[in-house]
Amino acid sequence: xxxxxxxxxxxxxxxxxxxxxxxxxxxxxxxxxxxxxxxxxxxxxxxxxxxxxxxxxxxxxxxxxxxxxxxxxxxxxxxxxxxxxxxxxxxxxxxxxxxxxxxxxxxxxxxxxxxxxxxxxxxxxxxxxxxxxxxxxxxxxxxxxxxxxxxxxxxxxxxxxxxxxxxxxxxxxxxxxxxxxxxxxxxxxxxxxxxxxxxxxxxxxxxxxxxxxxxxxxxxxxxxxxxxxxxxxxxxxxxxxxxxxxxxxxxxxxxxxxxxxxxxxxxxxxxxxxxxxxxxxxxxxxxxxxxxxxxxxx
Length: 298
Ligand SMILES: C[S@@+](CC[C@H](N)C(=O)[O-])C[C@H]1O[C@@H](n2cnc3c(N)ncnc32)[C@H](O)[C@@H]1O
What we know:
This protein is α/β, with parallel strands linked by helices and 298 residues long. The protein has a single domain (3-289), classed as Vaccinia Virus protein VP39 (Rossmann fold). The protein has eleven helices and seven strands. A seven-stranded mixed sheet has the order 3-2-1-4-5-7-6, with helices on both faces. Helix 7 crosses helix 9 (209-218), helix 8 runs antiparallel to helix 11 and helix 10 runs antiparallel to helix 11. The radius of gyration is 18 Å and the shape is globular. The model has no long low-confidence stretch (mean pLDDT 94). It binds S-adenosylmethionine (SAM). The site of S-adenosylmethionine (SAM) has 23 residues, from helix 3, helix 5 and strand 2.
C-alpha cells in the first residue's frame, strides 16, 4: 500500500477493517526497524515489578504468560502474530516447547527466521506467513495458542477468536495479553482516547475485556481469567522508558523535521499513555481452555 493511501485508510474505522491486510502489512514495514532499535525483539508492553531493565521485564512478562498456560517441552504451541519472534524465542528456551509462529508481515518473518537461526532454535521454532484470520492449520492442531498484542490488529474479533479456538485441540489452553478498552465508554471517550490509539497503530478496532469474554465463550472456550495486567505489576514504566527514548531521538532534531514514521510512533506512544492515564485503555490478559468435549454445534 502506498504511504499516502495508508495515511487515508488509518483515519477511517471502516476502511481500517476493510483493508486490514494491506494496512497492517504497511504499518509493520514502516515501524519494524524503529521498534527493534528502541524496544528490542519483543513488540509488546512489559509488566514491571520494580526497576528492572525493559529486556528483563519483557522476558518476565513472556514467562508469566508461558506459566499461565503451563507450557512444557512436550507441547506444540501456536504464537499468533509472532512479530520478529522475540517472544517465541524466549518461550521456546524457557519451556522447551515447539512453537509455530504465524505472521502476516513477510519482512518481519525474514528477520524472525534469522534470529531463530542465530539462537540455534530452527528445530524448535517454525514460522509461517499467513493471515491469522484464516490460518493454514488443521482443526485441533495445537496444545496451546498464545498472543502478545496481535488480536487488536484483527478486523473482526469474533471470527478471529473462532479461528484461534478452531486450531486449538480439545483440552488445550489459550492465553495472552492484548489491548482492550475499559467498560462502558461514552462516544466522547472513544473518540478522544481510543480512536487516536487505533489510528496511530493500524488497529481496526479495540474491544473491552467483557467483549473478549463473550467472544471466547461464544466459540466454546471456558474462560478462567480475564483481567487488567496492572493486577500483576506496573505498566507506566513502559512509557517512562519510551519518553527517554523519544527525548533522545528528538534532541538531535528540530521536532517538526522528525521523520514521519517516528512522528507516528511518538504520537501513538502518547495516545496510549493518555488512554492508560484516563482509565479508558487497558492491557488485559486472559486464560481459557477448550473443553475436552465441545457442545454440539460449537
Ligand atoms: C504489536 S506486534 C506484536 C508482535 C509479537 N507478538 C511480539 O510481541 O513481539 C503485532 C504483530 O501481529 C502481526 N499481525 C497483525 N495482523 C495480523 C494478521 N491478520 N495475521 C497475522 N499476523 C498479524 C503483525 O505483523 C505483528 O507481527
